[in-house]
């Protein structure tokens, strides 16, 4: 059966769930996840030619998925089935068990199965914002032999004082930026030249860590053993977000496995760089050495953020060894991707207020100093989940560098 088969026809009888193997049940959860836990809203670029896919058949299948997703009977049946899976998980037998080690592996698989089923239950019941949700992403990587795959956990959004832990969830900007980086790595500074010198990448407001994890997985697959180990540093501010970020890193880069990239989460308070504490903020590792590439996805949602981010990037983005005239493609860059939200028009406008366009950055008599400038602006339209005409989500990608 194809993925378009309704759950009531595809799923095994509830009373016999425990008779199936873990592998079979995992494949069923993958099928249900495709229906009920689709890509984050507003991340499918309009008129983008997806490698290896027919846009016509893809659109028809997506329309069918939307119909399944909104079918109340199928959703209710799926909720009952997932509830049955959680209840019967302890009854599932491991037919291949031979020793204690095998039992431990099997128990871990059962735990993962229960966690994934509970995550899907939260999505189907419409409580994703108040529940822990597991998401899986697969990004096409043209220069690699296989796609870059990332698994993330979104945790409930909480409020601490006046600040909500918005980084607890994966937002559309992060999905889109991760996809673009893996699809066109050289455009985003992941060049052979920089990799041969020990590439350093920083992410501001990393949240669940999708951009950093996708970048790290790409570099781990791409880097040569003879090249210096690249460094990827995802950062955030809120302790709960940082704890979840560290968890996501461990899930994608387990301890004890060989990896070709240095990846670790760190707290970073942007406001310190605008309050005269720049020297103290850059005196300790990993911020004592500047970065070749800095990423930021949907990190401006308050009026002060653009100024804080400008000062932070100014302190942490490596300056080119020489300047004057046109910058090389390998020059240090800050890539900022933001959605154009009607509710945050003023915040979005502040980006171009604090980062001047490169053509207007300097008067004719002032060209002996460096300033962070907008080098390029790209508008990106993405389809909304429901595919209604005119329901696109618009993003702006700013490429910012020293000029």
UniProtKB/TrEMBL annotation:
Sample GO molecular function, one term: S-adenosylmethionine-dependent methyltransferase activity
One Pfam family matching this protein: Methyltransf_16
Residue ranges crossing the lipid bilayer per the database entry: none
Alphabetized InterPro entries for the sequence: Methyltransf_16, SAM-dependent_MTases_sf
Classification via PANTHER family: HEPATOCELLULAR CARCINOMA-ASSOCIATED ANTIGEN, S-ADENOSYLMETHIONINE-DEPENDENT METHYLTRANSFERASE OF THE SEVEN BETA-STRAND FAMILY
Protein name per UniProt: S-adenosyl-L-methionine-dependent methyltransferase
Organism: Trametes coccinea (strain BRFM310) (Pycnoporus coccineus)
């Amino acid at each position: 059966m194809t993925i378009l088969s309704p759950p009531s026809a595809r799923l095994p009888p509830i009373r016999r769930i425990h008779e199936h193997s873990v592998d079979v049940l995992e494949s069923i959860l993958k099928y249900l996840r495709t229906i009920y836990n689709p890509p984050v809203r507003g991340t499918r670029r309009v008129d983008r030619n997806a490698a290896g896919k027919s846009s016509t058949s893809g659109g028809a299948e997506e329309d069918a998925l939307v119909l399944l997703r909104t079918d109340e009977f199928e959703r209710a049946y799926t909720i009952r089935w997932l509830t049955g899976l959680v209840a019967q998980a302890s009854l599932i037998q491991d037919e291949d068990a031979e020793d204690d080690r095998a039992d431990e592996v099997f128990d871990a698989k059962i735990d993962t199965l229960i966690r994934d089923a509970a995550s899907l239950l939260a999505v189907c019941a419409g409580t994703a914002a108040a529940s822990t949700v597991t998401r899986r992403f697969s990004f096409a990587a043209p220069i690699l032999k296989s796609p870059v795959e990332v698994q993330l956990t979104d945790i409930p959004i909480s409020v601490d004082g006046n600040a909500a832990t918005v980084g607890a969830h994966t937002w559309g900007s992060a999905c889109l930026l991760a996809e673009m980086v893996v699809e066109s790595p050289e455009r985003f500074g992941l060049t052979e030249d920089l990799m041969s010198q020990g590439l350093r990448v920083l992410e501001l407001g990393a949240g669940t860590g999708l951009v950093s994890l996708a970048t790290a997985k790409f570099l781990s697959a791409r880097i040569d053993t003879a090249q210096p180990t690249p460094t990827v540093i995802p950062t955030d501010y809120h302790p709960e977000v940082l704890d979840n970020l560290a968890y996501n890193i461990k899930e994608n880069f387990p301890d004890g496995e060989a990896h070709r990239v240095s990846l670790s989460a760190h707290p970073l308070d942007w406001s310190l760089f605008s309050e005269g504490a720049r020297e103290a903020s850059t005196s300790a590792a990993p911020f004592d050495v500047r970065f070749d590439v800095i990423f930021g996805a949907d990190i401006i949602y308050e009026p002060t953020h653009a100024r804080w981010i400008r000062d932070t990037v100014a302190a942490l983005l490596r300056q080119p060894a020489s300047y004057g005239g046109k910058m090389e493609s390998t020059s240090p860059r800050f890539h900022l991707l933001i959605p154009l939200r009607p509710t945050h028009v003023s915040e979005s406008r502040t980006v171009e207020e604090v980062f001047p366009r490169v053509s207007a950055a300097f008067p004719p008599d002032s060209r002996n100093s460096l300033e962070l400038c907008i080098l390029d602006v790209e508008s990106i339209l993405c389809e909304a989940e429901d595919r209604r005409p005119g329901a696109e989500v618009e993003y702006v990608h700013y490429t910012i560098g020293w000029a």
